[in-house]
Automatic annotation (TrEMBL):
Keyword Cytoplasm (UniProt): no
Signal sequence coordinates: none
GO cellular component terms listed in the entry, alphabetical order: extracellular region
UniProt GO MF annotations: feruloyl esterase activity
Localization (cell): Secreted
Main location: secreted
InterPro entries: AB_hydrolase_fold (IPR029058), FaeB/C/D (IPR043595), PLipase/COase/thioEstase (IPR003140)
Protein name per the record: Polyhydroxybutyrate depolymerase
One Pfam family, short name: Abhydrolase_2
Family listed: Belongs to the faeC family.
The keyword Ribosomal protein belongs to this UniProt entry's keyword annotation: no
UniProt entry keywords in alphabetical sequence: Carbohydrate metabolism, Hydrolase, Polysaccharide degradation, Secreted, Signal, Xylan degradation
Amino acid sequence: MRVLLLLLSVMALTAVGQEKQCHGADRCNIGDRSYHIKLPDDWDGMTPLPVLMHFHGWGRQGDLIIQHQRISGHTRRRGVLLIAPNGRGATWDFWTSTSRDVPFAAAVIEDAAKRFPIDRDQIFVSGYSYGAAMAWRYACENGDGVAALLAISGTLAQTESCSQAPQEVRHVHGLADTVMDFPMGPSEDQTYPVKLWRDMFGCDEPKNEGAWQAVNWLTLDRHEWDCAKGAVTLDIHDGGHFIPHGWIGWQLDQLMGRPPQYP
């Protein structure tokens, strides 16, 4: 009997250890929900990790994100822990301030912090398409602990009223996007996609920083604002609905004080 009890105890401890270190294709379970993690290359197992929590697009799940070269291909080279929550029904509830996915995503970060050491000063929240709208919603309702919002081809209505905000906002959108249409402002105002944050941060007139490229086949036009609090950046390109090559890595490099590079 004692041998059996000892064996069961060892099996239980092993299961707990495996659950604690979930990553990659193995889901990290939290209640009846889950998320995925991608560890960076060459992590020493002790140094606190900057975090990028990325919300997947409609019809996807987090297992795609941790394999995506335009997302995890950049985080793993920069010492950043990638966290990819799974939306219910492969989508997100971002439509109102009562979103059930905001507390879920906040709980995901706390759960990940129990499994791996994280750098609380470098928590970045990102998303693509519907996931970008969810990232906006998260920042709008729970952004006080977020160093930067990195949104790709998806927003909320610019008339939303946010209770919280991240320290910085960076948004990229294609003028030819027909899935999550480029939110053009009155009189063809191309800076309208970030009006919500500009108003909230008390920003001045934009500075057009001109064209830049992470890769030579895609040119982006950058606008930046000086703000009373926070910072806002908008990148515009002539393309459609996609994650621009190198965009996430370029932003992470700049936010972490490194020379931008690709990949």
